[in-house]
Every structure is written in C-alpha cells, then in structure tokens.
Amino acid sequence: MAGRIMPKVRFLPDDVWVDVPEGETVSEAAGRAGIILNSACGGAGTCGKCIVRLIEGTAPPDESTTRGLSEEEIEEGYRLACRVRVLGDAAFMVPHGSRFYEQQVLTDGIAPSVKGPRPNVRQYFLELPPPSLEDQRSDIDRLSDALLGKAPPSVEAGLEETRELSEALHADSFRVTVTLVGSAIARVQPGDARGSCFGLAFDIGTTTVVGYLADVSTGKDLGRASRSNPQAVFGQDVLSRARHAAQSPDGLWDLQERIVSCLQDLGEELARKAGIGLDRIYEIVTAGNTIMTHLFLGLNPRHIAQVPFTPVIRRGFSAAAADVGLRYSGRARLFTMPCVAGYVGGDITAGMVATRLDRREKLTLFIDIGTNGEIVLAEGGKLLACAAPAGPAFEGARISCGMRAELGAIDRVRFDGEEIRISTIGGRPPRGICGTGLIDAVRCLLDLGAVEPAGRMERPDGLPPKVAGRMREGKGGLEFVLVGREATEDRRRDIVITQRDVRELQLAKGAIRSGVDTAMAIWGASVRDLDRVLLAGGFGNYIDRRSALAIGMLPEDLPVEKIEFVGNSAGMGARAALLDVGARDLAEELAARTQYVELSGRPDFSDAFMAAMVFPERR
Amino acid sequence: MAGRIMPKVRFLPDDVWVDVPEGETVSEAAGRAGIILNSACGGAGTCGKCIVRLIEGTAPPDESTTRGLSEEEIEEGYRLACRVRVLGDAAFMVPHGSRFYEQQVLTDGIAPSVKGPRPNVRQYFLELPPPSLEDQRSDIDRLSDALLGKAPPSVEAGLEETRELSEALHADSFRVTVTLVGSAIARVQPGDARGSCFGLAFDIGTTTVVGYLADVSTGKDLGRASRSNPQAVFGQDVLSRARHAAQSPDGLWDLQERIVSCLQDLGEELARKAGIGLDRIYEIVTAGNTIMTHLFLGLNPRHIAQVPFTPVIRRGFSAAAADVGLRYSGRARLFTMPCVAGYVGGDITAGMVATRLDRREKLTLFIDIGTNGEIVLAEGGKLLACAAPAGPAFEGARISCGMRAELGAIDRVRFDGEEIRISTIGGRPPRGICGTGLIDAVRCLLDLGAVEPAGRMERPDGLPPKVAGRMREGKGGLEFVLVGREATEDRRRDIVITQRDVRELQLAKGAIRSGVDTAMAIWGASVRDLDRVLLAGGFGNYIDRRSALAIGMLPEDLPVEKIEFVGNSAGMGARAALLDVGARDLAEELAARTQYVELSGRPDFSDAFMAAMVFPERR
C-alpha cells in the first residue's frame, strides 16, 4: 500500500492545499492549513461559529450540522467545520467571521477603545487650506495639523520625506495623499493618489521560510509562498549556524545575506503574482526563533549558543527595512516579533498571539516540535514557557534511513493486523523515513512487542509471520525492514529501523515529554487538568496524534480529542501583527509576561528526562 | 586722521578680541564680543554681578567700583564691568558667574526640577551584573535596565548600535562605557572608556559663518572660528540664493553642499586646533535665518521667497548629521534652531534664548540689523516679532562707494568742529565706506545741515570752510567728498556720499524704523515705555548708537544708555542649545509663542515706512 495518497483539501480564499488523513474534521484540516477556526463550544457543533462552505467534493452533513443550519444553507454547501469529516478531495470557502484570530483579535480584541484592526500603514487624502498672509504655517505644520485626530498623536518626517513633501503640497493646490508607516510620514504625493498599500509577513523557520503578502489597508490575503531556508548550507540546525556566525570571520554576514535574499525573492515572487509594485510594500513583519531573528538582523547569536544562552535582543525590533538590505519601498519598515528567551523565540510569541493563548480560561498546552520543542502552558492569562532540546531526529537526522519530510519520505506506518502498511509523501516510491513515519513505525513495533518499554528491540513470540519476516540481525543488533530495496526509489538498500534509531527517537521524544512534565510540575497541574493541547508548526501539523500518545511523546493518558493542530501559527501570528499594531503590542506584552523556565541544568529536568525516555506499557 | 585704530579689548577665557570705541564700558565691549554680562541693576554699579578681572592694560576703577569691591580685589584687578571704561588696549578675564546666559539659563534656569545644564550627550561607565542561568536578560535589556533612572526614560538603539553593543558587553566582563545622544545609544565601548564628548554650534549667517567647539560634558569652550559663507557666489543676499535654489536644476544642491563643506571645514579646523578627533564630535547645533536653515538641510526655500512666504519647516529639526553630509562621529546628531516665520529665523530664536527675552519684565526691543531687520518686542513673557526689508544698503550694496565691513572700509565718520575725521577697519588706507560709516557720515551731514530732514542734499550757508570744500556737484546732483582719491588705497577715485546714497540709506533705515514703529503701535507702547534696546548681530554690534538715533533708525527720543550691544546672540544661543537640551526646549517654546506680524502688505506699515524715511530735525 506504499504511496497511498491522502485526501487533498483546498481552503479559499487563502488558496491553500493540505493533505489530510481521511476522517479528520474540516476544523482540524483547516488547522493544518494554518487557518484557525472559531470553536467556542470546543467542537460540539453547538456554537455555530465555525461555518464553512463546501465548494467542491463531498462532505455529508451530520446530525448536529443539520441542527445548526437551515435547509437552504445546507443545500448551498454550508457546514459546521467541526462536525464534518474529510472523506476525499474537497474545497471549502472560509468566511471571514469564522476565523478565530480575525474575530477575536482583529475585530473586538486587544484595544477596547479602538474599533477594528489598527493597521500600521495608513493613507490619507487631504485637501489642505492653501497658505495666505494670514496663515503662514510651514508646509509640515499644515500637513500635521490636518492629520490631528486622524493619525497617531504626532507624526514625524525624516529629512528625505520633508524634502519631498513641500513639492507635493504645492504641486496640486495643497491636495495631497499622505502615507504613514506608524507615526512616520513615508510618502507624500500630489493629488488623490490613494491606492492599496501592501505588506509582507514571514515565518522564518530554520528549515522553511513562508511568506505572506497582504493588502494592509483591507487585510486581504494576496498569496503565500515558501522556500527552503538557504542558510541550510551552513548547517541544518540553529546551533551549527550560530557556530558558523561565531567562528567564521564573515560567518554572520554569510547567513544574514542568505536569509535576506530569501525574503527578498519570496516577496518579489508574491508581488509579481499579485501584480503589484515593490515600491508599494511598506511593511515587513517576521516571526522566527531567537537565533533566526538574530541572524536576519545581523546580530551575532553566539551567546545564545552557549551557557547562559543570552540573546542580544529579546523585544520586538523595529528598523528601516533597507537597513537589513531589503529592497521594497525605500521607506518600508521592518518589525521582528519579540522573543521570550534564547530558545523560545518570535515564532512562539506569534503562535501565542495567533491562538490567543492568553485568553484560554482552561489549562492549555502549546507545543511547537522541531529540533527544539518549545512548550507553553497557559491558563487564565498566566503563561509559562520552556524549551526542550529534542535534537534533529524528528527531522530525519541521525536516523539510519532518515530524511526530511520531502517527496518520497515514508510519513505514515500502520499495522493492519497482518502486515505493515506505509504511505509516502506525494505517493512516490519510498526513499527514506521522516519524523512522523519514524514515530508511527516505533508505535507499531511497540504495539507488536518488538520494542520493549525500555527501548530494546526484540523478536517476541507470536509475531504475525509477515512482520516476523521483516526482523533481522543487523550490524548494530536487531533491525526492522520497513521496505525492501526492490521497492525503494533507487533500489539500492532496504529502508530499516535500527536499534539505534529507536534510541534516537527515545532521546527526542523524551526531551519533549520531560519538558512537558517539568512544566506541568512547576505549574502544579496534572494531565487531567489539561483542556487542550495545541500542536504547532510543520512537524506538529503532520504527526499522528495517536502515535504521539502511544510512544509517550505526549502524556499517554491524554484523550486524543484534546489534541488540536493549529498549523503554521508562527506565520499566522506574523500576519496578524502585519495587519494590526494591536497584535504587535499584544505580542510584546505576552513575550514579556511569559515566565521562562530554563530547563538546562535543572535536576528535576534531568530526572524527568530519564523517566520520559521509557515508552509507555502496551495497553 | 584716517586709519586711527580703536582700542583692542581681549576677553578670556573665550579668547575673543574686539575693537571698541574709546570710552565705552567694559560691559558694552563684552557685548560686542558676544559675551553678555549680568546687569541686575542696569549698569548702576550696585548689584555687583558683572565682575571681571583686568589682566592686561589699564582700567582705573571709578567710585562705584571701589564701593562694591574690597581693596584687595581692586588690587588683583577686579572691576565692575558696567562702571569701567575702555581707555586703551586691555584684556579681561570673565568669570563664569558674571555671564548672563550661563547663570540665568544653564544653572538655575528653564527646568526647575533639574540641577545644572542638561547636555544632550552623556556618557556612563557601567559595571553590569554578568548573565547567568538565573538572569538571562538580553544584552540590550541588561544595558537599558542599568541606565534606568540615570538616562532618559527609555533608551533606544539603532541596528548598528545594537550590533556593536553585544561585542562590547562581552569583551570586558560586562564593564562598558555607553554614550547617549538624546535617548539614542550612540556608542558602546568595552571597559571604562570615558572621555570628553564634543559638539559644535554654528551661527550660519548669510555673510559669515561662525563655529564654536565645546566639550559638551563640561560646557568648556574650546575655540571659535569663522569663515565667509561660500554660498555668496550665488548671491550676496538670501533672496538671490533662494532664487538660485528655485530656478537652477542643481541650484539647491549647489548651495547645500557649499554650506555643509563650510561647516565641515570649520569643525575640522576647530578640532585640529583643540587636538581632538572628529569621531568624538557627537552633536551639531545650528542657528540661521529661515532660508539659511532650509538651504543647509536641503529643503527648497522657494516658497519663502514669494508671497505668502511659507517655509517647509518652522520647528527645530533633528536628523543624523550624516544625512546632510557632515562627517563627524558616524552617530552624530544635528539640531537646527526653530524659526518663528519665513523671515524671523533660528538666529533670532537663538538670540531670544541667549538674551532671555522671555524673562524681561520691562519692555525690551531686540533688533538684528542686516539685509532684513528682525525686530522682537518682549515684556513679561509676551513676545512679538516682525521683519523689515532693509535691503542691502547697510552691507554697502547699491551705495556708490559702498563696501562690506572689511579691511580698509570707512567705519567711523566724525565732525570735530572744523573738519571731517574718519577711521577705517584695520587702520588701512580707505577703500570705500561700510554701513556704520555711511550712517555716521549722513549723521554729520544732517548735523551740518548739508542734508535736509526730507533727505535732499544742499549747500547751506555758514558751513565750515573745510567741509564746504568737500561739497561739489556730481553727476547725480550734489555729492560730499569723504576722502580724496590721493588718500585712497588705489588712488583712483574719490570716496563720496551721493544724493542717491542718502536716498538708499533713507530706505534702509526707514524700513527698520517703520518696523519698530509698527511693532510698537501693535503692542500699544511708546518710546517712553522702552526699558532697553538690544542690538544683535555683526552690524548692530559696530554701529554708533548716537548716529543710529541721529538718523532716526532708532526712535530719536530714546536715551542712548538704553541701547545695548548683545554681540553674536545667534551664536551664543546655538552654543547654549548645544550644551543644554533645556535651551532647545526653550527655543522651541519661544519660537512657537512669539506672535509674528507680517508687515508686507499692511497699510499701517506702508504709512509708517513713508514717515520713517524722513530724518529727524537737527537738535
């Protein structure tokens, strides 16, 4: 069954495609796509806040859906996303009002005295009284007086803008269009030159960079695109890049220039597709982990990489986009999302904003799993964060047949009672195994008794014959053949799980789990108290929740329904901050308010780590 | 008696030399040198606040001086500057406490809650707690936390400075020296690198630019130097320069680059003489008229030059010094003194600050005479300003034998009862006549009856024979020969005063006088109400007060003792603003608070102008 393709679900107007395991709810699928829907009733189908509209494919309404919607609505394709399951390829339209962030933050959130979002880029067409002998105000005073009450308390103009504004004022009888970025006059044009202003949000991941183009006046999404982070040539993980920056004379600039060109290229690609000029892009917001943020700004992250892990900056940083080398509007500004600490970065803060962790009234656990697992606990506005060093196993590194989650990677492994079944990304002939596949595979081996709770592989009695035939003695002890070489892409070697692979997974999942356990212990909560577990980021988004529980990466007594995918919450949070300065203030506040616990060197973390490496007993 | 040299008086520690008419008080002489002394008693010799010390030359104490000072003090050379007259060359030391501005503004002035001046550049040596697992604050937070309470409420760091600071912090165990310019971190150096920080103040005159170098930490004066304004190649007066900027494609930049190189050269000269590095100059403050300020910043002044005379900016402008092309410390900031209106500029605001016009409890008239005469009336904090278009006559232009106040210019003319006596600048053979000489000459002719009150030249009966012999019929009517060609420098032509010259003077002095009269009328005051008239600027500084009264440039019934010279008050005000941000705030406040009256197009001004062209009757 190698290469079975999961249903593809498309969400509009975002125009994002995701592969979704059959049977997942549309809410969950939307989460994988980074679209977080309202769920005031927690998926019970009673609040009616997650309405979507089926455009293509099938999605039969269940009973509660019919209860919440009129017959006409159901005929027109309206569904409650939390109650409809993905059965095959489908396309859904997600109305503005169903989006969690938009409704909670952009409309009625954050700054109670302000109606609606507060974009940082604003444009005004002004018809100013022309000067006379009775009114000899300077050009700039005439302009700022007219902006009083409309714009921030006081607007500023740099030298270049001041030079420009006089000409613009006099060119068309003091009718001008002013573009403000924050409180700074970015552009003054004669006459009514109003038009859309654009901005870019970036999720700068260690592996992948995602860019979002939006009309910052209307909030309209104008596309998204992604690229591999080109810094990878200097190391797959953040630490090797930090080392390169610290040790090589031009190391920092090698890395800085690469990430800046990546953001430039992505932005240009998005602008080209949307048919807009680069000079109308006035704002860039980035969310990245602390080391990515430092490298992007050209700040040396060397001290984050060593005890006691201190960054150069923690707060959100604002600068002229040109100062880092980005070439959009000459006056474009840049904002990097604030970090919590050296290993809980702006991507996590963005995630807290996107999921409004501060508003969760019941205990919520947010986990972003990657080379590091960042963990945030939230309840009633209280926030606690820590980072667990998972290592690169989930990204396929140090695994004998490991690979990244690319085409041909085995991403799902199941035991159907008789035989092991796999699927690969894109349905291609298998080339190796990625993190989700490894977790699935070990889960099967645990279920079959071929891996003991302590992690030792063994050949138990009563193994189904087909499975037993896959076990063999390798160089490093027992190993399990997932795919024989004849079925692999290059037909050169078998894809196996070795004893050492199992040990690597124990280290990785043990780190995450011990981080969760230590955070919960500090909080004084037990698994029973958890209302919800939010899985963020690319890896978290594709993990099989039951496998994550079965290997004990997450507490095994956690009900699976409590686990939610929140998609690329870093990108969503950055996008929110691009469209609303209130979201930036919120990010700054949450980052400062979050209690950070340094796990490194804590004796209780070491103990928890030892305990967490053990797999749960078979149920 | 051509070329008689006036006594030279030197003031220390400023090290300024001035030529002083014999018999003037040392207070007045200090005013000519731009050093304004206290005079709480108005020169009665009773308050004892203007003590100076005679270092060289003679200055016999008068009775009131002996009353105010002890015998020992008098032996040591101490004198009351208001009661000692200049009899010949001399040198005086001016103690800090005798300076008007320093005592009134820098020490107990402006911001009652702040003790002493508030320099904008500050340096701190900090020993920060090194980071640990318990204290993982970012480098910049560690630094700003340590500055809390010492520095402005919140310090900012640009990208470059942020890049620099981490290295500096870690280089010497978190012992660092921070230099702040305003609230911006300008420099972070490892260890205790404290040293003096320097700044430059400039008076950007249309004709002459004066630069002052000071240690901004201590306020110590480190020298002054002056140059001709190199923009003069594009016109002697502001209007022809504004035209050049408006009409020629690169006109603005021609002018901008010239004034910037002038400031750069002056600053480099001053730094070289003081033996300091350019990279330690962190602040530049300029005072110039509104057009000069625009040209310096690269703002096109074309609309100041035409009705309704609106500037691009009026307020003080702050920018990176590098943005206008100045090359001092890479992080040096620039501040241009705020203007009142298109024709009452930052030089006048600086003068208001230097003379604390806002604190004058009795009606005070401040006049800066040049191509334009700027006039400010002040009493009890109320301020009213206007500008009168005097034209270039005072600078020697459009006068048949006119010249600027340069070597060889006739600057004084007297009638000794028998004959006309002249003196020239530098005692050189006469080359022409400058503004002060022209005023003196016409005063003599008025006294002799050779010029009628209406301005017509005539040959009255009973003229002393030597004077009568100087009158002759020229091409344009009667003319008066001041110096025969054989006594001139080039022996090529006589130096004469023509009927037309008298008419030009009438226009110039009439403009000033009508400005004064209109301002007084708007204020509702008469000459009797005037407590003091302050003459500022180069021309005002060298004028003969009695001549100014005799030709009616100032109200003829004004007692001569009420006229004071305040020297280069623009430069002094700029210097005060360099050393004290309180003085900048004051300047901003005074400029905004001053009621500006536009004389152009006012019928009462036209009427006053007609009346003011008439000379006073002989007394």
Descriptive notes:
The structure is a homodimer of 619-residue chains. In chain A, the strands form six sheets. In chain A, strands 11-10-9-12-14-13 form a six-stranded mixed sheet, with helices on both faces. A six-stranded mixed sheet of chain A has the order 25-24-15-16-17-26. In chain A, strands 2-1-5-3-4 form a five-stranded mixed sheet. In chain A, helix 14 crosses helix 19 (603-612) and helix 17 (569-579) packs across helix 18. Chain A has 19 helices and 26 strands. The two termini of chain A are 27 Å apart. The radius of gyration of chain A is 26 Å and the shape is globular. Chain A folds into four domains: 8-98, Beta-grasp domain (Ubiquitin-like (UB roll)), CATH 3.10.20.30; 121-190, Ubiquitin-like (UB roll) (Roll); 198-336, 2-Layer Sandwich (Nucleotidyltransferase, domain 5); 360-568 and 581-619, no CATH class. The first copy, chain A, is of the alpha/beta class and 619 residues long.
Summarize the structure.
The structure is a homodimer of 619-residue chains. By secondary structure, chain A is of the alpha/beta class. Helix content of chain A is 31%, strand content 24%.
